[in-house]
Design a protein that fits this description.
7 strands; globular; single chain; Rossmann fold; 15% strand; 7-stranded mixed sheet; 227 residues; alpha/beta
């Protein structure tokens, strides 16, 4: 058995704005598969995204496929959830993409939107009850429990958190433990990133990799059935 150097293992230099390590994994032994309704709903959201043009100066908003913002808007338009939850506000691009198509979007972050220097949000976006931010760490079970009544009303979640796979698994487990009278949809960002591979692979619920129609670093959809 011979040893390969790091240079041997790395691909030839490629000029690219941003790259991440990932891995190609087989589908035949996947723990969970998408349902027909997941595929149909996703196709409808993709079709909707084709005709959506998001307003804003940030060039990432309408870089689609490649970024997930128009796809998020497409799902918001197709699913029309009574309440959507975002975990990870950051600069607000995802919130800005979704909220115009939603009745109510509550976005959680451990920092206020105003503390991000490159935020695309402003106070006018919070002038009504259609967009609300809560500064809280939902990775903390005590904090999650404090917001349980709100969270169990949501039928769509977008999780764009630490991307370490640990917090995402914890959030998924906590959401899955909530009572559900109807399907609950969860979209994860960056599922193709190395630290997220194990978490995504081990999800036992119906799921669908939508990377080709979302974020280049990975977009994954999970559907929790009623319990």
């Amino acid at each position: 058995m011979f040893k390969k150097t790091v240079k041997d293992l790395l691909p030839p230099p490629i000029r690219v704005a941003h790259g991440e390590y990932s891995m190609i994994l087989s589908a035949e032994d996947e723990r969970a598969r998408p349902t027909a309704s997941m595929v149909e709903t996703s196709l409808n959201a993709i079709q909707a995204a084709l005709s959506i043009h998001l307003e804003g100066d940030n060039h990432y908003l309408n870089l689609w496929p490649g970024e997930h913002y128009r796809l998020l808007a497409g799902f918001a338009l197709v699913l029309q959830p009574r309440l959507a939850i975002e975990i990870g506000t950051a600069t607000g691009l995802s919130a800005l993409s979704m909220h115009r198509y939603l009745k109510c979007l509550v976005t959680f972050d451990i920092r206020s939107w105003s503390e991000y220097p490159n935020t695309v949000l402003n106070s006018s976006h919070f002038s009504d009850d259609r967009l609300i931010q809560i500064v809280a760490d939902l990775g903390n079970p005590t904090v999650f429990a404090r917001h349980r009544e709100l969270l169990q009303q949501a039928t769509f979640f977008f999780i764009d958190a630490t991307h370490d796979g640990v917090l995402e698994k914890k959030l998924l487990d906590q959401i899955a433990a909530l009572p559900r009278k109807e399907p609950v949809w969860i979209m994860f960002d960056d599922i193709r990133v190395w630290t997220m591979l194990k978490m995504w692979r081990e999800i036992p619920y119906p799921k669908l990799d939508l990377t080709s129609f979302g974020h280049w670093s990975g977009t994954g959809l999970v559907c929790l059935p009623p319990n």
